[in-house]
What does this fold into?
Amino acid sequence: RRTPRAGSLVISEVRLTPILVADPPLLNTQGVHQPYTPRLIIEVVTADGVTGVGETYGDTKYLELAQPLAGKLAGHRITELNGLSALAEEVAVNAARVENSVDVGGLRGVQTADKLRLSVVSGFEVACLDAWGKTAGLPVHALLGGKVRDRVEYSAYLFYRWKEHPRAAGGQADDWGAAADPAGVVAQAERFAETYGFTSFKLKGGVFEPDQEIAAIRALAERFPGRPLRLDPNGAWSVPTSLHVATELRGVLEYLEDPTSGTARMAEVAAEAGVPLATNMCVTTFGEIREAFTKDAVQVVLSDHHYWGGLRNTRELAAVCRAFGVGLSMHSNTHLGISLAAMTHVAATVPNLDYACDSHYPWQTEDVITERLAFRDGCLDVTDTPGLGVELDPAKLAPLHQRWLDDDGTMRDRDDAAAMRVADPGWTTPRTPRW
Ligand code: GKR
Ligand code: MG
It folds into this structure.
């Protein structure tokens, strides 16, 4: 009897397409989102012509690593996922890109060389899993061991925002209007709840005086009694300010996300807060886990499968969290449907996914896939379609790439402080703690 021939698992071609995606004027502690955000779309093609897709951060520092890594992949098997990290380690990281301090106001925690590499590896890992799934006729979650749930719950991601970008900045208009006070935040939450069925709410804070943000959370609690609420100022507060907010919102918040920056300060807050602390800033690599968990600095880790190095590393993180009794969920950055599909597949396989994940996706009106993913009752169904279950649409990809090509360099690297300076020329990135 002849063994049926498996589809070829060997990579014959890799295509990298940097794009700029329209983004609304969402505010955070560093400034405001630029009109366009960089993302990188990765296509891995096997010798049989099966294409797998991945998505990751697209700033120059990631492209600089993705290009040489892509050059090493011809002949590599899509199943050799562990080998991706070893290949990435052969790629030198420009020392100027590495930022080891948590006090510089970054939104993604420290930027070590390893973390930059892992953020790139994650896009290739997802593309390989997609191609492998399509070749084997299996969904990505099956390649990760199988789903333990049929739907993944997401939370509404509320932002203070302007109605539109300043005219000088360009960009695209939307009909959300401004949200600059508690009433605006509640109105935004109502629209999220009605349109997508979200039942939990995260507010991006660190924008206004803490007492105004406390008032916004109280207004949400009054409008949506008993619903899970979170507040995330991206490390903008000192320890005393964090404790003030925690005290005021004790019993109201499901968790407080990165009130202050750095593990030592988070530990000080955690000891007194009486509210669980979550992070996507002080525990962003395996190396940061030991100190944070032994000091009980965080009670919830929010994975970002991009900077944790992919879907399998996210599962390893989940196992460590389980061992230490630390909660787990996922946060997001500006992203498109490929990343959302990847998040959903891995989330479906993690038994201890303790909280609804957050997603920027509803803020993105553009995408590169044929059919956008649709939230129902605040959840995404977990697809059993082979691979990720999404298809790249070249006709949608091309104009976003053209936008990247046409850019004069100002949008290719996300810079929320630069975007703020268009409206407020004196703006500088606030040092943390800001309050
Ligand atoms: O998009 O403004 C933003 C967020 O602040 C994002 O950059 C964060 O990484 O949403 C993220 C978070 O949970 O901190
Ligand atoms: Mg966060």
Summary: The radius of gyration is 21 Å. The mean pLDDT is 95. The pocket of D-glucarate (ligand 1) is lined by residues 26, 28, 107-108, 204, 232, 234, 280, 331-334 (CB under 6 Å). Residues 113-136 form the longest helix (24 residues).
